[in-house]
Structure formats: C-alpha cells, structure tokens
Design a protein that fits this description.
9 helices; elongated
Length: 309
C-alpha cells in the first residue's frame, strides 16, 4: 500500500467532486477487506471507514470541533448499498494537504489491520491524538451547562411531571405555575452568571420565576449527561424527544464525562433580584437602535436557598 498513491487519489477527489451535493466513492488505492470511502455531502467532505458491529462495539460516536467532526453515519452508495461509516469530515476550506494528512492516518489499516481495529474500538483515542490539529476547541467544551439543565429538570420532575422544555429562547424550563432559568459553572470560587438578553429573566406569562445556579466539578465518579438522561427516561418524561434531539449534537466524550455537584442554589427572580428587562425602560420599550442587552450578575450577597439532590 503506497501512501503517495492514496494521497494523490484523495487530492483528485477533493478537487474534482467539490461541486457535488452528495457523493460516496470507494477508494481504489485501499484494498479489501479494509475498505475506505471518500464522502461529499453539501459543504461537508472527508473520508469514512465501514463499521462492522460484529468486529467493534462502536455504534454511536460524535466528536464536534469548530469545522471538523468525527461521527457514525448511516449512508447509501450510488448503487443503493446501505453502509454504516465512521467518518472524518470538514466543512472548512482549510489546506487540502493538511486535511489529507488527517485522512491518511484515519483510513490506513496498518499492519494486519491493527490501526483499523484500534480506531473502531476507541475513536476517542484517535480524536485526542489529533485534537490540536483538529482545531483545539471542541464544540462540546461547554456541555456541562446542558448537564446542569438536565440535573434541575430531573429534580423538578420528582414533584411535577408537567415541566416543559421551552423553545422560546428566553428561560429554560416552564410549568403552568412557574418559569425556570438554569445557570451552571465549573468555577469553584466565583458565582458570576451571564445574561444574554433583556428577556432571559423576564417572565413572559407573569408566573413566578426561579433561577437555579449549579456548581459542578469534574470527577471520576458522579453524574453525567447519560446518567441523568437515564433517570429522566425512567420517569417516562413526555418531552424526552426534545432532549434526545439535543443529545445528538453533543460529543460522546461529553455525554460520559462525570461531575460532582458541589452546590445548587435557588434564587427567586423578584423585584429585589438585580436584572435588566424591558420593564426597566420608559414605556416598557428599549431605546431605539438598541438591539440586544447582555450583562453579568455577581450572585454573591443575594438571598438564595440551598437545594440538596
């Protein structure tokens, strides 16, 4: 197997198939049984290797970066063949040669297929090895904030099965009686939260409003997104589909990462709580040409209730 020939084949495919909306092409320079494919789907392009459930436990994987992702995909070739692939894809117009370097390492089977077996059994290990070149910052770096939302949802479901995940983009959860905003931090000694709009701490239906502040610490044991999700599923939560849709966007590594819950505070968002909403302005209207308001609140010194979970 000549690396230079594989590089040339990939380089030609990246250029020739740039304008194809959808294309899966079996690479000629990598022989069976270690097949590999070139993939083009809209703005995404890259390579994939077949996932055989009899040889690997890899059935669900996602690692998201700014313009690159590694994921499990069910695809169909031009001749109608259905195939499951572990894919390395990019949508960034980066140096083709740099990305081909990644692709080569991804698809080369190694002696007796040892590289292929290792990649399929532990794709996260490969991602970690190439993390710096993949873009350093994972899109999942802040996924602990979603864990905080799930922790509070799971807690509230103990007493109220009618909690809804809101799609309004203002606060996070709501019921017929209350609205809820959840803020999560992994900083041990500060209690600062960022408010992203003039509506985030505004009760749109005039119901009482509560803010939960969750402080987490990464650990070997504790709670994870997958563990809390299982608890929510066991409660037969009616909106579980909304959670599962969001979960698909979160990397496998983040879903399994464990945290200790250091503390949970509950604040009542009332007239004494510092906030900026449209009610703060004359005629309940934001001045002309101001589109959005973002601000930071230090929660220290504000009355709250400790919540034990």
């Amino acid at each position: 197997m000549k690396i230079d020939l594989i590089k040339d084949e990939l380089r030609q495919l990246f250029h020739i198939l740039q304008k194809q909306d959808y294309y899966i092409y079996k690479l000629k320079e990598i022989a069976s049984p270690y097949d590999a494919y070139f993939i083009r789907e809209g703005n995404w392009k890259g390579v994939g290797i077949p996932v055989n459930d009899k040889k690997t436990s890899t059935k669900d994987f996602l690692a998201n970066f700014e313009n690159i992702k590694v994921c499990i995909q069910n695809k169909q070739t031009s001749n109608g063949e259905k195939i499951c692939l572990l894919s390395l894809l990019t949508k960034k117009e980066i140096s083709i040669d740099k990305f081909i370097l990644l692709c080569i390492d991804f698809i080369i089977p190694g002696k007796n297929g040892e590289n292929r077996v290792e990649l399929l059994s532990n794709p996260q290990k490969w991602v970690n090895k190439w993390k710096e070149l993949l873009g350093n910052k994972s899109e999942s770096d802040m996924d602990y904030s979603y864990l905080g939302e799930l922790i509070i949802l799971n807690f509230l479901l103990e007493n109220n099965k009618e909690i809804e995940i809101t799609n309004q983009g203002s606060y996070d959860l709501e019921s017929k009686e209350k609205n809820y905003e959840i803020k999560t931090t992994i900083l041990r000694y500060t209690s600062i939260i960022e408010i992203h709009s003039q509506y985030q701490l505004k009760s749109l239906n005039n119901n009482p409003f509560e803010l939960y502040f969750v402080r987490l610490e990464e650990s070997k044991e504790g709670v994870s997104i997958n563990k809390v999700l299982k608890s929510i599923e066991n409660k037969n939560y009616k909106n579980i589909d909304k959670i599962l849709k969001k979960i698909k966007e979160i990397s496998s590594e983040s879903r399994e990462k464990n945290y200790n819950i250091l503390e949970i505070r509950k604040y009542n968002i009332d007239n004494d709580f510092p906030k900026i909403t449209i009610d703060c302005f004359k005629n309940n209207s934001i001045p002309k040409n101001i589109i959005n308001i973002k601000y930071i609140i230090d929660l220290e010194g504000i009355k709250y209730e400790n919540i034990q979970i």
